[in-house]
Amino acid sequence: MFYLRYGGASRRIVGQIIRTNTRSLSGRSNTIRTRAGSRYEESSRPLPFTTCTTRFYSARMVATDELTARLSALSLAPSALAAHPAVSNPGQWKEALGLAPGVPSSFELCKTLVFKPKTAKSATPVPVVVIARDETETSSGALAKKFNLKDLRLATDDLLKDFFALDKDSLSPLALTKDNFSRCQVVLDSTIAGTSAPLALHASSPEATVFLSGKDIATYLTSLETAEAKVHVVDFAALKAEAEATPGGVGPVGKAAPAKKAEDAKIEGAVQIAIGVKKELDFPTWYTNVLIKAEMIDYYSVSGCYILKPWSFTIWERIQQWFDSKIKELDVENSYFPMFVSSKVLEREKDHIEGFAPEVAWVTRA
């Protein structure tokens, strides 16, 4: 027996399956039970969908009519759609798609990163939206240098909601619309623009994926361009090579040893390993990547601050204990210094820490 939920002003069935029976899917029973408001209605109409097509929308699919209309207006159509459990990182995403029906046999993940450049407090930020293959190394430092921006940091959840009404696990190029495109700086991986291979994009949800070719993604993005706002196509491999050839953008040209050392530190097939460099050749980068990739720390919107995640706190305690013993051997006492942050940041913490009262930490100018 199918339980389908009605939705929308047109009262049409949207295919949200609450409970299903394989006998009904096979066509042995065409009786469905639907709910309109608080009551259930019996119907013997033929089932409005089938499972033998890649365009099947299941319970968790959030491919809205508005999104579909935007693609259709450009004569674009997804090669496949998939529903799966909620995912929060590329590993989970790829694993979930591997178990989902109707997924292309060969595909790549497409990541969408949003960075916020450092701006004056009174200025409205212009987010930098980076769209790239999951395996592409997108250095925020190199991007900042190329576009003459300062201190690119991953955008906060608040900024993502303000601009796109989505969280980081639901973002994709399709989050860009005529309304917000001109308010952003959009950067597209050059290896995407010319490929016809299917790329997996979040369909405005961590539980739904839509597959589009790289060419279709480029077509969609360029359709949003205005006279003032354009898509910036970037060759990230060339950008990285340029950054390594001139570390920091200054210094003598002949000093190429650090770039050579960084090149030697690369691991063959690092797309699977994810750390990217060898520990013995570039320890600082290796250690930083381990902490971030293992989700032990996270960046914070306040410059110089990091968020220690639960599974890293014991390590931090050990580090403190070691330094504490060494420092006290020198007859040095511990001391604490205040750190000043904005009232907006303090207000946000009351939602994170039970019992936190932001007003006790406020400092006013005399």
TrEMBL record:
GO cellular component labels: aminoacyl-tRNA synthetase multienzyme complex; cytoplasm
GO biological process: prolyl-tRNA aminoacylation
Matching Pfam families: tRNA_edit
Gene Ontology terms for molecular function: aminoacyl-tRNA deacylase activity; ATP binding; proline-tRNA ligase activity
InterPro entries listed in its UniProt record: aa-tRNA-synth_II/BPL/LPL, Pro-tRNA-ligase_IIa_arc-type, YbaK/aa-tRNA-synt-asso_dom_sf, YbaK/aa-tRNA-synth-assoc-dom
Record has Transmembrane as a keyword: no
Source organism, top-level taxon: Eukaryota
Keyword hit for Ribosomal protein: no
Cross-referenced PANTHER family: BIFUNCTIONAL GLUTAMATE_PROLINE--TRNA LIGASE, PROLYL-TRNA SYNTHETASE
Protein name, as recorded: Proline-tRNA ligase
The species this protein was found in: Thanatephorus cucumeris (strain AG1-IA)
